[in-house]
Design goal:
Layout (H helix, E strand, L loop, with lengths): L1 H8 L3 H24 L26 H4 L10 H17 L16 H6 L30 H4 L2 H4 L27 H6 L26 H5 L20 H8 L2 H4 L4 H5 L17 H5 L3 H7 L6 H4 L25 H4 L7 H5 L1 H4 L5 H5 L4 H10 L11 H5 L2 E4 L2 E4 L12 H5 L7 H9 L1 H5 L12 H18 L2
Antiparallel strand pairs: 1-2
Length: 473
């Protein structure tokens, strides 16, 4: 830059003036093009600051958050952003939010709103302000709980002497989602052993999560297919390894033929043109809930807003360099034709992830359990893979299906206690382990260094209440 300035200064006055004008015009053109250009690296020139860990993947699609046409209310900037937050996170908070906006509609809370506008997401979660952004995208000072709950020690003597910024420690409170921490839940799990005698995760139901209730009777009313039944065009040269892989899968067992995937267009509709590339929408015809939850997580959120798939090169966590340009879609983990769920559960993750937590899994007690299950030394469900914790098996409508939003139970991480850890561990042990940052980083290779006391505190609170009721005349 200094060399350019010196060169301009050495020019005659008129030429120097035109050179400065030309440079300013180029700068103006660059920023004008960046403003109207589709999502690309050029658009990053307009970013006012670093985006949070949860949103940086979609930061180049400014309209994902800043499009006024998507706002249902008035068109000021705050309303537009508030609507953007609700569009993405509203469903996740619908049934679990302990501080919903409607809670503060009561006039008696007006004084609280004067301290903290709890009806607006932007009060606590601002973007492009890295100098004040804490974990979970929080941009409020760490004492925000204290301003409304500073008298808590009067009603809860157990809270006396606690630090003002200790409320959100794992195992205590979470502002939005207390589903694993509310007192009745804590008390119900009081006294559990650290390691349960029956430690196993729910058995996955291969038909659960499908668009139809029974794949054999609703979606594909055909008998199982064998390798010689493959209906690919006869003129096409097909690798016999691919055919053998397909023939050994549950797809073939359910009569899912080559044409069902390769003769569908990008909208999942039947097509007459064969395509070697199978779009995610085609997978979604049968695996709707899996696709829907995938695009809600960090792996698929770019696809949800119309951007290209995420690649490991765009990640902020350490990744394997040789995987930098892999695109994250269904086939990234469920490799072509074999769709090996055992491979997808851990090996697929380690193709990309190279952070301490991921690499530590292999030699951890969890990793040993997973190897024993793969080697059939123990029954199915006793192993702990990456997917066991980060893609939990959920039970609803009588079936067990896999939630593909791999970041859902990390918002906050104590959500994992309820959905995953309690299959094998007591609640106190699980919350203590999740609160131990060193233990998380090392893949839970040891016992928690410190015990979280919230379970005991909840039990004592219920016992004290019962004692007071008995003393009343």
């Amino acid at each position: 830059m200094q060399a350019l300035i010196n060169t301009i200064r050495s020019l005659p006055h008129a030429r120097m003036w035109f050179a400065c004008l030309g440079i300013n015009l180029l700068i103006g053109v660059f920023y004008s093009v960046a403003l109207i250009a589709p999502a690309s690296s050029v658009k990053s020139a307009w970013l006012p600051g670093k985006t949070t860990h949860g949103h940086y993947q979609i930061e180049l699609d400014c309209n994902a958050c800043h499009d006024p046409s998507k706002s249902e209310d008035s068109m000021n900037a705050s309303d537009v952003m508030q609507d953007a937050c609700i569009r993405c996170h509203g469903d996740q908070l619908k049934d679990v939010d302990t501080h919903p906006a409607k809670k503060f509609n009561d006039p008696t809370n007006a004084e609280l709103l004067a301290t903290l506008d709890a009806q607006n997401c932007l009060s606590c979660h601002a973007e492009h302000v890295p100098h004040q952004t804490l974990s979970m995208g929080l941009t409020m000072p760490a004492d925000y709980c204290w301003h409304c709950h500073k008298e808590i020690s009067d009603s809860r003597p157990s809270h006396r002497g606690m630090a003002f910024d200790s409320c959100a420690t794992a195992g205590c409170h979470n502002y939005h989602d207390n589903s694993a921490l509310y007192e009745k839940f804590l008390d119900d799990h009081f006294g559990q052993p650290d390691h349960l005698s029956l430690a196993t995760v729910p058995q996955r139901d291969t038909t659960s999560g499908l668009s139809g209730s029974e794949i054999s009777n609703t979606l594909w009313p055909m008998p199982a297919s064998k390798i010689n039944d493959a209906d690919h065009p006869k003129s096409m040269q097909v690798d016999t390894t691919l055919l053998r892989d397909w023939a050994e899968t549950s797809h073939a067992a359910a009569g899912v033929q080559c044409s069902h995937c390769h003769l569908s267009d990008s909208n999942g509709q039947e097509s007459v043109t064969w395509s070697n590339h199978v779009p995610m929408e085609t997978c979604g015809q049968c695996h709707e809930r899996q696709v829907d939850t995938f695009i809600e997580g960090k792996h698929g959120m770019r696809l949800a807003v119309g951007l290209s798939p995420m690649t490991p090169a765009q990640a902020r966590l350490p990744m394997n360099h040789d995987a930098a340009h892999r695109e994250l879609n269904c086939n990234a983990c469920h490799n072509d034709h074999r769709f090996d769920t055992q491979f997808a559960a851990t090996d697929a993750c380690l193709q990309c992830h190279a952070d301490d937590h991921s690499l530590a899994h292999v030699n951890s007690p969890h990793g040993e359990l997973w190897r024993d299950e793969v080697l059939q030394k123990h029954v199915s469900g006793t192993g702990v893979s990456c997917a066991t914790c980060h893609m939990p098996r959920l039970t609803d409508n009588g079936g067990v299906w896999v939630n593909h939003d791999q970041s859902a139970n990390l918002r906050p991480n104590e959500k994992m206690a309820r959905e995953v850890c309690l299959n094998c561990h007591g609640l106190e042990y699980a919350l203590s382990a999740l609160a131990d940052e060193d233990l998380v980083r090392n893949g839970f290779d040891a016992e928690p260094s410190k015990r979280i006391e919230s379970v005991q505190m909840a039990r004592k609170w219920f016992l004290d209440r019962a004692t007071k009721r008995r003393k009343k005349p």
